[in-house]
Amino acid sequence: KVAIKGIERELICPACKELFTHPLILPCQHSVCHKCVKEILFAFEDSFADGGSESSNQSSPRIKISSSSMDRIDRISRSGIKRNSLTPKSSLFPCPGCQRDIDLGERGINGLFRNFTLETIVERYRQAARAAIAIMCDFCKPPPQESTKSCMDCSASYCNECFKIHHPWGTVKAQHEYVGPTTNFRPKILMCPEHEMERVNMYCEICRRPVCHLCKLGGCHANHRVTTMSTAYKTLKEKLSKDIEYLISKESQVKGHITQLDFLLKETECNSERAKEEALHSFEKLSHVLEEKKSAALRAIEVSKNLRLEKLQTQAEEYQGLLENNGLVGYAQEVLKETDPSCFVQTAKQLHVRIQKATESLKSFRPAAETTFEDFVVDIAKQEEILGDLSFHSNGLEIPEINKEQSRMYSKALISWECPGKTDSADVYVLEYHKLNGEEESATWQEMEVCSKSKIISDLDDDSSYAFRVRGYKGSICSPWSQEVILRTPPAPVFSFLFDDKCGYNSEHLLLNPRRTSVESRAGFPLLLGSERMQVGCYTTLDYIIGDTGIAKGKHFWAFRVEAFSYLVKVGVVSSNKIQKLFHNTHDVTSPRYEQDSGHDSGSEDAFFDSLQPFTLVTLGMKKFFIPTTPAAPKDPASRILPLPPCLGICLDCDKGKVGFYDADCMECLYECEMDCSGIMYPAFALMGSAAIHLEEAVTAKYGEYHDDI
Fold first, then answer.
1. Which of 7, 227, 452, 645 is in Cβ range 3.0-4.6 Å of 663 for a Cys bridge?
2. Residue 53 and residue 77: Cα distance in Å, rounded?
């Protein structure tokens, strides 16, 4: 038989940390005092009304809500949901037992069952704890007598005399059930909280709670699997009995584990003290080194100070001697009083040399020593950084490496890393980043804790470079920092659009994916069929497609990828008032019958060709990027051909009338030109032959989750 006093831990409410009082069973099967549930829900209402949880926590001194629960209350309160503050009607309840948000349903507290079994056990525990404290009769005239019985039907306690008076022989009350003196009165029949006049007679196996027949017929349990209460009682009691018997049979094993845990507790205490001593010794050693360095630095400054003071003092005394009737001048004045020429000449020669030196020093005065001690400034920037990284030995914890190929810098920054051993040796990672600025000598690192191996960072400045680094933590042990990786943000905010499948879209030659983020040219086969009727020449045309969203003002950036097998692709922007020219351009520049070169190098052909273009496009193809022919472009054709970047970007500045083409991986500008932005500008693309273009997707939280799965 288990002693009542040995189960006190199971009788403590997780909210108030006291013995349960009228406990309610939550949908998660944890029990909480009825008063605690109300106070926690009222804390919700206070947080919605006051915009925080501080005041609500102070207004309920009895309840001890954990910080994680209060964080969830704050999170829900910031969601902007309006509540009625008269009664707690929140459907979400932060369970203090499992630390999860539990949905109480529409009825809230009224839909919860009282845990009468737990309440009875708590009452037995209280009686065992206060055996000397008597329960008084509820009906005696003052002074009341000690009760001898408690009526479960009347929910009251009686002495012998009062019980006979209120339960006379031969009446209905004489049939009431009575027990020994108690303060715990429980109903004989458990009623349904949703249908108050119905008793519960079934058990829902899905919700794991008793229900009545009305709940099964038309309530929220209509489609749930239910069983009779007697069957559920028998099944659960058999399972619980078997589990208890199994635990009791393993008593020796449990005692062995307890002994082992006691040993581990003592060993942990000893090892922690030893670790403290080693850490203290290390810091004392480091402090001793600092003390020696400090003493040496102060000594050097003191020696330099004394030497400089001595030089300056000597120089000051020399200049003091240049004053009238003082020092050198006074001595010279006395020598001038000598009347004997031979004696005067004998003394005046050396004196004249000294006077000349004094005169020259007076004309070009320089202090004998510097007053500043700039050479004695201790540079501790590197040491401070090293001390900032001071931690326990990594003990084999692998240094993570940032994967440049999987990391992206677009609408947001996606930073991914991995461990060389491909194992999750760290429990958590710390990612740090800062903006690179040449004017600042030291930058402040922004820090964030990450449980996965990737992180999305937003709110970064446009056209800026950032340095990233990451380290792993396993308990209090951390790995060294990874090698810093520098990524650059786009030169302008990212512009999102899809391919337009209506305006000028040629479905016979171009194939769009369902999301309209990729387009592929399939013009080869229709062209092949049409070539049967062609005997001379080869007439091919570009198939154009534009974005479904236009730009009227501001500076914007978008990126895309061109498949390596693409033969010919043109990309750029087109004005709304020139779209018709784009799709109805009559000049077939690829036909051999069209010859734009007249045979001389006047440049008029290039000018004529450029004047025909109603838009600004650059040519890509065969893994090459071709810089357009302009007066400012290099004359050598080979110097105008660049390798095609894996990801290409376009930056349109409508305010300045400029468009730039970028290597989107490193955000390097490959080509920039001016253009007329008077109308609404649309992204434009053209494909010929076998080619494909994929728009770059914006970095979102969902993208990061998908990236982690990969």
1. 645
2. 9
What are the pLDDT digits (tens) for 602-648?
444 444 344 444 468 899 988 999 988 776 666 677 778 899 999 99
Let me know how long the chain is: 710
Taking CA atoms, 578 is separated from 102, 518, 582, in Å, by: 59, 24, 6
Structure tokens at 24: 């309610």
| Cα dihedral sign, 298-304-308-313 | positive
Q: What is the DSSP string of 103-157?
A: E--TTGGGGPEE-HHHHHHHHHHHHHHTTTSPPBPSSPPSSPPBP-EEETTTTEE
Check whether 469 has a pLDDT greater than 90: yes
Paired tokens of 85: 């503050």
| 510-587+613-695 matches 1-45+89-131 in CATH topology | no
- Percentage above 90 pLDDT, the chain: 17
Tracing tokens 């191996």 back to the chain, one arrives at 453
Q: Is 185 left (phi over 0), alpha (psi -120 to 50) or beta?
A: beta
Here the tokens at position 295 are 């003493």
Who wins on pLDDT, 99 or 702? Answer: 99
Strand pairing report for 31-33 and 658-663: unpaired
Residue 79 has pLDDT above 70, yes or no: no
Phi and psi at residue 496, to the nearest 5°: -105, 135
Other C-beta atoms closer than 10 Å to the C-beta of 426 total 24
85: number of Cβ within 10 Å: 13
| C-alpha pair distances (Å), 311 with each of 157, 190, 314, 360 | 103, 102, 5, 19
d(CA 167, CA 452): 70
Instruction: Work out the pLDDT band at 676, boundaries 50, 70, 90.
Output: confident
Phi-psi label, residue 394: left if phi above 0, alpha if psi -120 to 50, beta otherwise: alpha
Cα-flanking dihedrals φ and ψ of residue 359, to 5°? -65, -45
DSSP 376: G
Coil, strand or helix at 655: coil
Asked if 32 and 12 touch (Cβ cutoff 8 Å), the reply is no
Q: How many other β-carbons are positioned within 10 Å of the β-carbon of residue 434?
A: 17
Q: What is the dihedral of CA 246, 247, 249, 255, to 10 degrees?
A: 160
**Domain 1-45+89-131 bears CATH identifier 3.90.180.10:** no
Query: Considering the entire predicted model, what is its pTM?
Result: 0.48
Residue spans of the domains in the chain: they are 1-45+89-131, 231-363, 401-489, 510-587+613-695
Count Cα neighbours of 493 within 13 Å in the Cβ-side half-sphere: 7
What are the structure tokens assigned to 522, written together? 């399939």
What are the residues facing 136 on neighbouring strands?
A: 146
Confidence of residue 594 (pLDDT cuts 50, 70, 90): very low
**For 544-567, how does the pLDDT look when each residue is reduced to its tens digit (9 = 90+)?**
899 999 999 999 999 999 999 888
- What does R_g of the chain's alpha carbons equal in angstroms? 45
Could you tell me the CATH superfamily of domain 510-587+613-695? SPRY domain (2.60.120.920)
The pLDDT tens digits for 362-372 are 777 778 888 88
Question: Taking a C-beta distance cutoff of 8 angstroms, is the pair 394, 477 a contact?
Answer: yes
Question: Which residue bears the tokens 């349990």?
Answer: 221
Distance of CA 312 to the CA centre of its chain: 61
The secondary structure of 489-556, three-state, reads CCCCCECCCCECCCCCCCCCCEEECCCCCEEEEECHHHHHHHHHHCCCCCCCCCEEEEECCCECCCEE
User: pLDDT (tens digit, 9 = 90+) per residue, 635-668?
Assistant: 677 778 899 999 999 999 999 999 999 999 999 9
Helix (H, G, I), strand (E, B) or coil at 308: helix
Take residue 171 and report the two structure tokens written for it.
Answer: 């009446």
The rounded distance, in Å, linking the Cα atoms of 293 and 288 is 9
The whole-angstrom separation of Cα 165 and Cα 332 is: 136
pLDDT of residue 605: 43
Domain 401-489 classified CATH 2.60.40.10?
Answer: yes
